[in-house]
Task: structure prediction
Amino acid sequence: RVLVIGAGACFDVPVAELARTFSEVILADVAVSSVARQWQRRFPGRVRAVVWDATGALAALADRRKTATAAEVVSLLAGSDPGDPPGGEADLVVSANGLSQFGLIPAGRLSAADSDEELPARCLHAAAQRHLAWLAARPGVKVLLTDLARLDIAPDGRELARRTIFETLGLRPPDQHWLWDLAPI
Result:
């Protein structure tokens, strides 16, 4: 079994190869895309697209989005547990491009962020640490795909801004790295 966390629209997921290699491919994301559903139909019984919150905190954050203090939000993300992986433990777990989004996106929608501009960054850090601990506890092979920095580049090629993301998480240097034009001009 292979579990792909953050499968999204499967743009970066070699679903066909995985389906030929593994008896079960689970494409998990907080919102299942139509592309993931197409893969499920193409490989019935081998590929499953499932809605799954890898943070384990989104429902609680939604319930308390207007009332939770900044400290409560960070604590919730740091202590949340998504539970067992969908489908059970996997031989291969791929965390695909979610680490820099866990905590960041929901934090910006919380009332506590209105008076605390650093809350999203603290939420990102707490959720990322928690995800790394959850991932480390899984048996089998684990692959972490994540961005290390975000760069804003002007049309003339000048670097306008660089935001490094994970210096404080204790990640070792990557085995591989590449530039990824997320939103090219």
In short: The chain is about 30% helix and 20% strand. The first strand starts at residue 2 and ends at 5. The first helix runs from residue 15 to 21.
